Write the structure tokens for this entry.
Amino acid sequence: MLVGGVYSIYQIVIIFYGINKLKSRSNLADPEYNDFISILIPAKNEEKVIGRCLDSILKQDYQNFEVIVVEDGSTDNTYYICKEYENKDNRIKCYHRDKSNGKPSALNYAFKLSKGNIIATFDADSVLQKNTLTQMLNEMHMKNLDALQGENFPVNANENIITEMSMIDYGMTKVALLGRSSLGLFLPLGGSNQYFKREILEKLNGWDEKYLTEDLEISLRMKNFKVEYSPSVRCGQETPSTLKEFKKQRTRWFRGYHQTLFHSKKELKNLKDLDSIFVITAPLISSLWFLSLILIIISVLIYGLNPIELDFLIGFGVFLLTINIISIFLIIKKSKKFLKYIPIAYIYWFLTSLISLYSLMLEITNRKRNWEKVTKLEL
């Protein structure tokens, strides 16, 4: 409980700092760049969404790019749809692999085929805004960045309560990344709408194919490079719309965090190193905090509490509830609709804590790691 409380206070400082940056937008110059961008897209059974992703790329106001789609063992028409786009535009290349070895393997495969000095990665359900690539180049050049994480926002957030929960995730992630980027803290990459200088990826030997969350693992190896987050480089993505798909996605994410915590190389030389440990342990802290609440309730029912213990728990609970309500209020842009997100936030915490505990058990018992793909819809 105390560890969870300390972690919450630490996070709220970062979140408040990020909230102060919400209204700021990049107002950078727009010079002519001649960078050649390689856009890497792993795709498996994405026939419903791959077309709109490629359409949004072809409509970019910056046109000096190549698109490398790695069709990774699909059983639907993904490959044939990609080949149709390849026939229409010679900047698009589609490669088929009979056996899927996961997203990081597909990214490495595409990276070896790429030629660009800027490497961009997107998921197959990504929908780029028209100026996404232009804004990215502005940011990377003007700030001399080694890597950049853009904003991924949900395109189906109002579908049902499962997708409504994505707004909690989206809002928290956005302000936390803004705060981290502004404070120069550890910045975890998000797996899509991310950009690298080619020489950086070459120096790092690409993505580590053992990890379920290859974006988090490579973020650790990039701590000493200049990486920032930009809400001006925007890209839409689908969020899971059923409990089954939500569980599948979060299980992979959280197990990837646990895997990274237990097996990746970590250092403790400075504040950024320590902060990276806080980020990696977040699902573990959340799930153990949730478990501690259950144990406390059971203990109270069996043994009861003396007045001092009761006052402490009530005060601590009110303090944390106040922090959560204020956070949600500010993240949802001070709108009255933030009230409906309070119960949703606790439902989200309940579900993600259970999934995190489940994924922790999978990792501790050394169950086989599978790169589970979330089913996407045609919106």
Q: What stands out?
A: Strands lie at 37-43, 65-72, 92-97, 118-121, 127-128, 147-154, 194-197, 227-237.
